[in-house]
Structure formats: structure tokens, C-alpha cells
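Thread: Modeling a multi-component assembly for a lab meeting

Hi all, long-time lurker, first post. My supervisor asked me to bring a structural picture of a complex we are working on to next week's group meeting, and I have zero experience with this. I have the sequence lines for every component (689 residues in total). Could someone generate the structure of the whole assembly? Inputs are pasted exactly as I received them:
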Amino acid sequence: MNTTQPILRRVCVGLIAAALGLSLAGCGTNTDPGSNEGTDTIKIGVNYEQSGAVATYGSDSVDGIMMAVDEVNAAGGINGKQVEIVKYDTKSDTAEATTLATKLMVQDKVVAILGPATSGSFMATIPVANQNKVPVVSGSATADKVTVSDSGVQEYAFRTCFNDSFQGTAMANYASKTLDAKSAIIIKDNSSDYAKGLAENFTATFTAHGGTIVGEEAYVAGDTDFNAILTRARGLEFDVVYLPGYYQEAGLIIKAARELGINQPILGPDGFDSPDLLNLGGADALNNVFFTNHYSSLDEDPKVIEFIAAFQAKYSKEPNAFNALGYDTANFVFDAVSRATEANGEAIKDALASTKNFPAVTGTLSVDENHNPIKAIVVIGLENGIQASSEKISS
Amino acid sequence: MEQVFQQVINGLSLGSIYALIALGYTMVYGIIKLINFAHGDVYMVGAFVGYFSMSTFKLGFVESLLIAMMICTMLGVLIERVAYRPLRNSSRIAVLITAIGVSLLLEYTMMYFVGAGVRSYPPLPGFLNGSFTVGGVVIKNMQLVIIGVSVTLMILLQFIVRKTKVGRAMRAVSQDAEAARLMGINVDNTISLTFALGSALAGAAGVLVGVYYNSINPLMGLMPGLKAFVAAVFGGIGLIPGALIGAYMVGLLETGVVATGYSMFRDGVVFAVLIIILIVKPTGLLGKNIKEKV
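Re: Modeling a multi-component assembly
Sure thing. I ran the full set together rather than chain by chain. Output:
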């Protein structure tokens, strides 16, 4: 059956990874991953989803990263060394992300890895990072447990985005206070930790403000038929719809919801931030839609305006949050590399952990003891599919 | 009450799509006892042909539907000719594995050419995009089109199988290929024709789904393919009316599970039903218990 194919592939990847591990253990490891001492370049890995289900997150992040790399190299590199990027595509596959992270650390000997963009894939690369002592940094892995496991903080994992509990909480605050909502229905992507975490945090804060969750419906990634869920939702009384999930389904859900006459505000997370949301949902449906995001191109901060101008000059399009986060993540790592005592993974990790008031496009950030950034969040409102309003909420 | 009607409409349009795919499964199984796992991917190819015909060549809905059906017909015949015919006398497991291979080949060839991301169909002309309300029940025009096109194609298929000479040949081959050959029936051509008809229906389903849900990708055939397979088994695999009933049952069942508030268990329930049927009545709803000769 077709379904056995991904399982088979995973088994194969596992076997290969195990074989790699064995061969390393066997040869007495004279390889030293994560050190660029004595070379003229600083090798940094880029391990992003450039094809597959969440391709736009990865590709957009990589566009931002490459812009930062070009800028830093044009300005003479970091401490006189040029940045060399080794770029791989995870195909939006978790097992592939882990394999590629290992390859980057062991074979390509990078000092740090950027990506992947989604929490699940990023988390899968963390054990490899801890083992090889090479930091991994994501610009958009927002799940709570990314940087903190049950046994404490993940030493070699960092991110430049806020986490989901903050995102869910901020949206619940926005719903209760700004939109004055008393009741909400949640339609969540049951196949992603990201969506489930957001739903939990939204529920906790929303009910704490005296609101009620009248229903919680679920779908799985890849679904295209939402009529049954939405018909059920239509029969309930609520003020807002909270839709934690990714653009691929969110676009279709919003379209179908509006067609069925569900005209209440639809709230979502940063997973909405993709041009495909407009293609899938259609401009008519994307009204009265709000989502939490890392950055808005409507921001009037001079740093943001400068970034937008430079990005438009390079790629001839308006940067989205993933472009900005990719750009920030790359610069965040470059900043740490420049401050690190040595060009190796361990020193860079210490430099990353001690980052204070780093001026990022997505807001000034400091790294806290759990390797999470302390920064502000933006709620963006859509009108006919176009970003029409933005409101900054600080943490 | 209007909730119930609304859900029935949803279930019927979903069921119609499953039915179009399930018919191809069941016809191929009926004639050469092969579960053609590449069938869901023929449906995917149909969706992409429709997409390119609408977006690149700016053709209308009906033309795109016919072109997709034509190209899928050719694809189905080609697959049978290249991948299955050389294995006509091999063990059934060999053919089954080949079918899985063809399925992966189609998926990843398509991915190579168009990328793995989702694509959205171009906006439709007014009529197809509209909807109307009857006593609180919102009916999308596209839902009616889906049900209408499906039912028309199924009636046409039933006519071909029951009333024409080639249909009689198909039924004869499915009963006993060897005896049919002795009676002067060209078995190879009849099998090709079966693949052609099944693939044409899958191609039509692909375009309908693309237009209706507005989202296509190279792996879109996987889940509907499996659900249609469940539908075919549900009704009794190899039986055309069984596939129809099975498909509508699966569509309504899925919708029903969601309607009662268990959206998290939707797919689970469908596959649980498959397991129960296989245990209780392996031949399906309409299947007869035939003792296998040893």
C-alpha cells in the first residue's frame, strides 16, 4: 500500500543514520565537527524546507538569509573571514532534516546551522546538534518545547521568533480586549504540535478573560474538504473563529467558511503568512481576518523601512515575515560569530546565549535563559487579502 | 434539521468524487483482479491537466474536463500496456508491487516538473463560483455540478457495460478470461478499454476536485485513492454498483462523523469500517460469497 512508503523511507533514513553513527564511532573520530579554525571562510549550514508541504516558509527564509550573507560578505565578512553557505533542502521531511543536519555537521563541518523553519523538523535536528556541539538556529520554530526539553534547556538550540504560548496568549488577548469577543470556536490542525499548542494557549487565556470556547474541531494537514466541519460550526453561536494551522489548509477553510456564510472575524497564527493564503482563499474571503506575526511591512521603524527597500531591490517583491526572520536569524548568528572567542560551535553557542538587545528587523531581541528571544508581537489585519492594519504588542 | 440537510449535501458531493475514483478501482479489479494503486495518481494527473488547460491555455471548464479525461484515458492505457501487460502471467503480488511503483513514479515525476507545493486553480466563471440558499441550506453550484457530472458519467458507464458489445466483452473477460478468449474476444483490448474508462473517470474527478477545493498538489491522489479503495471494498470490490454505494456511504460516513462532533476521528472511522468489513463480510455489501476452488 502507498501508506507504507513514508514509513519505509523513514526506516531507511534511520538505518543510514545509524550506519553513519556507527562508522563514526568505529573510526575513533579524528573528525572534529563544528570547527573552522585556520580556514579563510566561516562555513554556515542552511537546512530549510525548499520544497514540499511548507516550501514557502523555507524558501522565503532562505531568501532573507542569502540577502544577509551577501550584505555581510560585501562588507568584508565577519572578522575578516567571508561567510560560506552550504545549502540543503529538507523537502519538508523531518527525517530528511535530521540526515542533512548530520551531514552538514560531520561532512561539511559547518560551525552553525540555520533552519529548518518548522518546529517539528527543527526539533528533530536538536539531538544531532547537542551531540556534535554545533548550534542550530531557527527563525520560525515557534513550538514551546523547541528550546526546552523535560531535562532542561537545549544547549545548542536557539531561535529568533517568539514561542507559541506567547502567540496563542497574545491572540486571545486581542480577541477579548480589542475585538471584544465573548465566545470562540477553534478549528485546529490536529496533525501538528504547533497548532495544538496554539489552541491550548489560546483556550487558557481566552477562558481566563471570561470567554467561552463553544467548540473545538479538528482536521489534518492535507485535507481539502472542510464543509462538514464548517457546517457544524455554522450551527453554533460564537464571536470569533480561531484557526491555528498553516496557510495551505487555512486558505481553503477561510474560503469555504465565507461561502457558507460564516462572517465572524477569523483569527490565526503566523502560519497564515504566505502569498498562497491569498491564492487559495481568494481576495473576497480574506476580510476580517487577523493573525499574529513577527513583523509587518507596514511598520515605520527606519530599520524595517531600510530592510524592505533593500529586499525589494534584490528580489523585486515585498518581504514577508519569513524573509525578515531569515534575514534576522542569519544576522543574529553572524553577530554571535563575530563576538565568539573562537570560530567553533561551542564558542558560538556561548555567544548566542549571551545576546543582548540585538537590533533585528522583527524587533529588538535579547536571549533569555531558555534560549527564547524576548521581543514584541504584531497582530496584522487583512482586507481583501492585503495587510491593512498592524498593531504591536510587547511581551 | 437544516444542519442535517447541509451535511447530506456535503456528504453527497464528497461521495460523488470518491465514486468516480472508486469505479476505476473496482473495474480494474473486476477484470484482472489487480488493485491498481496508481489509480489515485491518474486522478492527480487529471487535476494537473485541468489546471494547465485552464491557467496556461485559458480554456473553459467543460473543455478542460474533456481534455483531462482524454489525457488520463491515454495515460491509463499506457500504464496498462507498459507496466501491467508484460506481467499478465506473473504472480499477483508482482503486479501489485508494480502498481505501487507506477504510483510513486507518477507522483515524483509530477513533483519534478511542477514542484511539491500546492497550486490553486484559476478563479472560475461566475456560475460555477456561485451558491444559493434553500431554507437555510447553502448549496454551492459546484456541488451540484460535481454530483451532476458524476451521476451522468456513472450512468454512461453503466450503459457501456450493460448495453454495448464491448461492455459484454468486459463482463465476459471478468468472469473467465480464458473462456472469453476461446469465444473470440480480444482480451488484451478489452482490458485496455477497462483501464481507459476507469482512468477517464479518475481524470474527471481530478478536475472536479481541483475546481471545487481549489487546491492541488502532486501527492493529492494518495488519501482520496485510499478512501476510494475503501469505498470499493465496502461495496464489494469488482462490482460497479457496489463501488457507487460504497463511495456514497464513505462520503456520508465521513461527514456524519464530523457532524456529530468527532472530527478528530474522521479518517480513523473510515479505516476502522474497512477492517470491520474485511472481518465480517470480506466480499463487501453486494458481494456474494463464492467458495474458492482449491
